[in-house]
Amino acid sequence: MAVTIDQALVLESGFAEPERLVRDLRRADDFIRLAVCAADRVLAATERARPRRIGIFAGTAYGPLETNFSSLATLIDDGEGRISPTLFSHSVYNVAAGYVARLLGIMGPILTVTTYSWPFLIALRQGRQAVEAGMIDQAVVLAVEVYSDLLVDAYCRLFGVSLAPLVPGAAAWLLGRDGDGPRLLSVEVDETPCLPALCLTREDETWQGHGLAAVGERHPLAHVEVLTRGVNDVFETGVEWRLAAGFGRVCIALG
């Protein structure tokens, strides 16, 4: 049995939700909306497995940070008896994956990975292992980042610039069993302790391998965008991608 990448896409801010999801997402923040719509699009492009045979593996460095701040501000200003249950629940990092499962009818395992280095790639490794082990037939692997004014200010101060390339976005990969896409042979991730600023600016992050194009300004989702474009351009076997930075190393093998 081979684990294949059946679909892969990037979703940027400014998108429109499908009409059938508008009502259910009316109270959702961008973190949830991006995750749901990215997962919906990647699943719509291929035949779906049974609900209990699909898993969700999400990765995020910063999560719903602005919603976290709003929830804490309400708690501090109004007291614990006045905090909005909806606002509080939306501040939990696993909420996006929960929305995806509920709105798209997925009943398999759910995991949200949070780390500042390569959360998407760790989620990808976990999803690949789950499919390879036969626990599920498909894995929706998500990367979602929405940032906040605090992170934008930190980025601008670190680089001495007035604008930061921290644009909300998401990516979704659909892994399957013996599909028609590139075979995902292995994902090896090695994290190394570093200064937090390095994980935000990604200034020394590099990626090497066939089909990986360069980008301009670095940001936490840049490598995900590069890898996603690379997946969609892979037409040969034996491809190996290597990522390196002060916070670790990654090796991805495609067959």
Key words describing this protein structure:
five-stranded mixed beta sheet, alpha+beta, Peroxisomal Thiolase, Chain A, domain 1, 255 residues, 9 strands, globular
Descriptive report:
It is a single chain. α2 (30-44) crosses α5 (95-104). The protein has helices at 19-22, 30-44, 65-78, 85-90, 95-104, 119-132, 149-159, 196-201, 222-233, and strands at residues 3-12, 54-60, 110-114, 138-145, 169-177, 184-191, 206-208, 239-245, 248-254. The chain has 255 residues and is of the alpha+beta class. The strands form two sheets. A five-stranded mixed sheet has the order 1-5-4-2-3, with helices on both faces. Strands 6-9-8-7 form a four-stranded antiparallel sheet, with helices on one face. The relative contact order is 0.19. It has a domain at 3-179: Thiolase/Chalcone synthase (Peroxisomal Thiolase, Chain A, domain 1), CATH 3.40.47.10. A hairpin with a 2-residue loop joins β8 (239-245) and β9 (248-254). The chain is built from nine helices and nine strands. It is globular.
